[in-house]
Amino acid sequence: MLVDYHVHTALCGHAVGEMEDYIRVAAQKNLAELGFNDHAPAFHVRDPELTMAAHQLSEYVDQVRILQKRHHRPKIKLGIEADFVPGHEDELKQLLGQYDFDYIYGSVHIIGEWRFDDSRLYPNQYDERDVDEAYEQYFSLIRQSIRSGLFDVLGHMDLIKKFNYWPTGNIDHLLRKTVRTIAEADICVEVNTSGLRRPCAEIYPSEKILGLCHRYGVPVTLGSDAHGPEEVGLDFDKAAETLKRVGYTKVATFERRERKMMPL
Ligand SMILES: [Zn+2]
Ligand SMILES: [Zn+2]
Prior knowledge:
The protein has helices at 19-28, 57-70, 89-96, 131-147, 172-185, 207-215, 236-246, and strands spanning 3-7, 33-39, 75-83, 103-107, 153-154, 188-192, 220-223, 250-255, 258-263. By secondary structure, it is of the alpha/beta class. The protein has one domain: TIM Barrel (Alpha-Beta Barrel). The strands form 2 sheets. It has a 7-stranded parallel β-sheet with strand order 1-2-3-4-5-6-7. The chain has a two-stranded antiparallel ribbon with strand order 8-9. Helix 5 (172-185) links the parallel strand 5 (153-154) and strand 6. It is globular, with a radius of gyration of 17 Å. The relative contact order is 0.16.
């Protein structure tokens, strides 16, 4: 069985469609669970095209809980995708602690002031940056986010490759160090199919990273990162194939932040 734990809503200002339409597509694709996982209000930036505003969070939670009562196939879950920005951990903990989410995603979308994944700025500043250094900084933030203890799931863990810029040398040591940190923290890694629709044309994280995750006993879950109903469950056949190839037989599901494993 498959779950899609990463779909957005119009509240974030850059996704489209009715929540019921996302659910309808998930039902057509026979997904066991659909998790709404919209962008949490951010502290480092107030941009109505990036995240919902702070006052919309309770509205979001209420809407998902209503849909949860209305639908049982797929089961609806309440997630939230939070930006990890060092220095804002306490505020984030306080904000998200007000609600009983089924799971909390931690995602790194920004390095310092550089919003490296923002498609509005495409191709962004990669040409002016030292790409090797960007990878170092990105994975260092990822490790900090893991150690913060705030998150259940690590979102699109090699997002830095989005615009098809790659490190010049071998970064195996960086990946191993990061996967070891994930295993120590006992959190889950998301297999996110949206990378296939981006210039990098690869699932996040790469098959190589997934192989390492499997070796270190790291659980995985699945997300499409849908920003429109038609993207729900997109390319999940490819994700499932990749997971089976590296040895996974189960995916993680969450309820009130408790993890359970379900056969793939
Ligand atoms: Zn988004
Ligand atoms: Zn994200």
